[in-house]
Amino acid sequence: MDLLAHLAAFTATADEVSFSRAADRLGIAQPLLSRRIKTLEAHFGGQLFDRSRRQVTVTEFGTSLLPYARDVLERAGRLDQAARSARAARTRVVGVPAHCAPVALAGVLRAGTEHGTTLAVRELPPLQRQSGLGDGSLTYALLRVAPERAALRVPLGLAAGRQLARRALHLEDLRPPRGVAGLPILTLEEDEVPYAQDRLARAAARAGLPETLVRPAGPAAAALADTLAGRARLLCAEPFARQHGASWTPLADTSLHRGYEMGASESHGESGEVPQWLAESLAEVTG
Questions:
Q1: Crossing angle of helices 3-16/19-26, nearest 10°?
Q2: Where does the HTH lysR-type domain start and stop, copy by copy (predicted)?
Q3: The architecture CATH gives domain 3-86
């Protein structure tokens, strides 16, 4: 028995002193309301209404139970309201790439406040952002996808201690002379996703670069130090390079650029969609 629905039928009938008006008030058919009243009477072991007269009246037994029925319904209503408030107040966690500009992340948090949503940002590698949406630890996330099918495309280039070129850079321009080792090209964790690594490896091979020339950067701070000292080149987006005082030249091969789409969790009552105001602020985060 759905106790709340049956108690609602009881209290509505007592208020309206009419089965038909009570059914209209609750938006149900009268036979259903009558069945609920009879079920409740059988459950409590006594008649709630006197049906022998022209107008329905509450029995003495029903009158003794009516205040408790109203109290249960009122408490249930407050419980529903508390649940709605708790859902509205819950912090939504947004998964973003590492090394985002703090001013852009602050814009995301401010946008949440302006729209009545408490947000927290968490910098995570690409695969953890994807899995976080699946397990519900993230509400929203920026997800890496191939640039040709991405909603947001971020040009990648090479950071260096000095300017490499004034135009877009082709990887074959970096082919070292015979007998020279050449400077390594370091990749950040954000670009160490399978499809991106495979594309970069194939592009480097076509350009005639030694296989060992492209490798993971490890800690970003150490990679930046090597880059600024002229001992390496770092694959990254322009804002990251400029933020740390490195020169930057874009790659001509756009298939090597970063692509992002915005994802939303469908757990915890979320709609599975990213609000437009959040999508706009996350676009700034990608750089």
A1: 130
A2: 1-59
A3: Orthogonal Bundle (1.10)
